[in-house]
Each structure stands twice: as C-alpha cells, then as structure tokens.
Amino acid sequence: MDGQGPIFTGQDLPPLRRPNISMEETETDLHKNNEINSTDSIVSKSKLSAEAKEFVPKGIYSPIPTNNKSVQNRLERSRSQQQAPQSNNIITAPQLPSDINNGSNFNDYFNELEHLREVIVLLTSNPGKFDEKVPALLDNLRTCLDDSQMMDAVVQCIVDQAIAEHNFGYSGARLFVILNAYSSQMRLCLMNYCDSIEFTAPHSDKARNYTLFLAELFSQLDWEEAFGEYLLKMLQVLLTFDGPDDIKCICQVLKLTGMSLEALKFDAVLSIVNRLQDRLPDLPTSCANLLKNVLELRAAQWGRNNMHQPSTIPITHSVQSDYPPESPFVQRWSDGGPVFYGPDGLELSAEENAFLTDVADEISHDDSDPDGLWDPDPEMDEEMRAAFKEFVAMGKK
C-alpha cells in the first residue's frame, strides 16, 4: 500500500551478534568468581562458631565470680517479688465475722460493714485518702456506734487488717481513735478482742504487724495504760521468737514509745532492754546497729535533757526507786518545755537558750514599723523607701 514503509518479518531480521568483551573485563570476572568460590569453600570447612565461649589469653587475670550478698538480701527479695504472681500483691479485704448471718443486727448494718471494708482496703493502699474518706464513713456508721455487736465486727475488721497488712497499722490506729470518740463501745470491744489474740512462731510476721499497730494505738491514745500493757505483752512474745526481724520490730517500738513505756512499767522495759543487750553479739550487722541506736537513745534519756520532759506522763515509784532523787532522770519529770537543737544536731545549752529567748523578747517588743525594711539597701533614698512602704500598703488592701 502507498504511504507505508516496508513490513519485515522475523525471517528478514539479521541475527544478533555477540557483545564485544575486552580481555581485561574477562579476567576481572574470572577473578571475582574464583574469590566467591574460595570464600564459600572456607565457610563450609570452618570450625568457628558464633556461640563459642569468649577467648581469654592466659596472661590476663579473669576474676572468679563470687556470690556477694547484702546483709538484708534486698536484691534477691526484689527479684523474688517481681517473679512472684501479681495476685500475691493484691490487698485483700478483711473478712466479716463468721456469725454475721446469725444476728439480725448484722443484717440491718450489712451495707455499713461493706462500706467499712471498702474504706479499709483503700486506706491500706493509699493512706493519703484518710481525711477524704473517713468523714463519710463516720456519717454512715453513726446509727450503729452504740451497738456492741456491730462494734465487735468493726473492731475485728480493723485489727485483722492491721495484722494482715503492715501498711494499715497507722491508719487503723487513727480510724479507731476517731470512732472511739463517738462510740462508748469501741474501747471495751477492742480490749476484749486483744485478750483473745495469740500468736505462735510460724506467724511471727503477723505478730510484728500487730505489735506495731498497738504501738501506734498506744501513742495516739495519749499513752493509756491498758494498751501499754498489751504492747509490753507483745514485746515479750517477740522476744521468745528471737528472730532478727522480731528484734528490729522491738527496736522500732521502743524508739516510738520507749519513754512512755518506761514511765509506765520501768521494770518490764528494763528487763526487755537487758535481754536485747544479751543478744547483741549474735545479731546481724543491720539489726545490731539499730539496737545500738536504741540503747544510745535510752542512755540519752530518750532524747530529753535534764530540764525538759512532758509533764503529762506521771512518774512511777519504780523510776524513783531505781535512780537517786538528785538524778537528772528523776528531775526531768517535774519540768516541761521544748527542746531546741542547733544546726550541728546538738542540743542547745542553757546559755544559748537564754540568748534566743532574749532576742525573741526584743523582737516581740519592737515598736518599729512592721512594713519597714529590715536591712535597707544603702543606695535607696528616702523617696524609694516611701514608695516601698506605699507598695506594701497597697498589697494589704
């Protein structure tokens, strides 16, 4: 057809020629192929392994690993707690009394007890919620605060949780003190329940929790004698267990309540201290250091000097008979007042206290302008000082 070029078929095309390859390129390709083949051969025949042990020359010192452990094995305890199931860290609610279904009062106040349990669990994990949650709980329990059977259940819930959970000891004591202020049955119910509690050596952890709860209760109830006797009884029980943790618990209690317990039952505290001193050489380092601190604190009259001591704690005959009348330990019970310490941590002397008192009196009787500058800048003229006084006056409006 006109206007179209020639049509070629496959038979009309000329055959393709082979590419022109120089001798240098040919030799390079052959060299690369030989290198690849040689590398594969080495890898296939090699005995090296990526999992082989690290090579250490004989001339280099390789330390032998040692199993160094801290005194309290904090690392091992932390690892064991992390490997333990999470269910062990869940705070359980205190159990209601077993005879809850046998009395009509329990059925009437079941919702109140459930509210109490919820608050107890919350305060165990978050003590900072105390001021927020307790007022509502108190309002909810107002109708049953004079019911002895109900108060038995309330006391049992509080004490059992303090025994099971160490973190609830302080909050439990606070909760009891508040409820006791509005209930005439709480104190008697608690004393009856304390009389029924006993511990054996396999449950020494619960005994320690209960002891710390009693110590908090004793301190928050203004050193009431009945709970001081319960506390001393538990200290004697922990001494029979004679474990390092039990000794630590006794030391913690004595640091918190030792001064008051000694005023209440001096002979009993002296017996406990003597038994602790006998155990001192056999105790671990951390426990021994804590015990030494307690003994030093007692030797320093529990942090009080010969002129200052709370006058609310009565002096007992045992204290007077053990020390001469002119002893500072006896003299300090008759006077009261604060104890001041300097920046170095040492107690201020009588001369230093007198100086501070004189300075405080001078400041209190100072009739100068309270809005004036205490130490004005020399560069401030009268106009600037007047402007400052005006600024202070404007801030008070």
Notes on the protein architecture:
- This protein is mainly α.
- Among the domains are: 106 residues, no CATH class; 47 residues, no CATH class.
- It contains 17 helices and no strands.
- The chain is extended.
- About 11% of the residues have low confidence.
In a few lines, what is going on in this structure?
The chain is an all-alpha fold and 397 residues long. It has 17 helices and no strands.
Which structural class should the secondary elements be placed in? Answer: mainly alpha
Could you tell me the strand content as a percent range? under 5%
How many helices? The count is 17
Low-confidence stretches: 61-66, 84-90, 305-336
Mean pLDDT: 75
Main β-sheet: number of strands, strand sense, barrel status? none
Which quaternary structure do these chains form?
single chain
Instruction: Indicate the overall shape.
Output: extended
* SSE arrangement, N to C: HHHHHHHHHHHHHHHHH
> How many strand segments?
0
> What portion of residues is helical?
55-70%
- Amino-to-carboxy terminus distance: 111 Å
Radius of gyration: 40 Å
